[in-house]
Amino acid sequence: MTITKIPKLSKNCKDITDQRFGRLVAIKPTNKRCGRHVIWQCICDCGNECFVASQRLQNKQTQSCGCFKKDLLTQRTITHRMSKTLIYSIWKSMIQRCENPKDLSFKWYGGRGISVSKEFHDFQTWYEHIGPRPGPEYSQDRIENDGNYERGNIRWTTQQNQCANSRPISCGPFRQFWFRAWHKDMMCQFMSNSQSKFAKKHTLHGPSISACLNGKQKIHRGWIFLKI
Ligand SMILES: [Zn+2]
Asked: How far is the CA of 65 from the centre of ligand 1 (A)?
């Protein structure tokens, strides 16, 4: 039979056995000290065991075995990568619809003589000019509807503003139904003009796609949607 000897706490050391500090629960004090402070054996929600000085627990300096910071970093990296992918796609789509006759939107852009200026073929130059996208409900718009994608003629705008600014024909079925979709784990994008068909094909929820397209929701099961 093994008897685990639990060290006695000195008078000025608070007993924090079984107390929770973020993801950590203090199990028992150890013989080790960090300055005047007892080092406690703790168990983290993720299952890891760790040793933390009492004052670090009580001051909320340490609240996990290190897994919390890791999770936060992963989350940030995913968000960053996603927004980068999305903004890239918006830029690429602009060039595609103006220059690729096979693009579904070509007839409304390139086919109408709308072009992308030479300098905007450089992603960085275009991005520095238009700036970060203010929100998911925003898409790129040309201030002068018959003008090109060029310096001084592009901005982020909501679909509502865009329709008010365009000729009535732009608000027809094309604007209402075609959209692009990306999944955060896939490097390709999809185009569709039916939210219900798209939902069925990818086992998604139609109204949630709608909410994403209207800017009420950012992401649905890893998918991002953007009106064309
Ligand atoms: Zn942990």
From this structure: 4
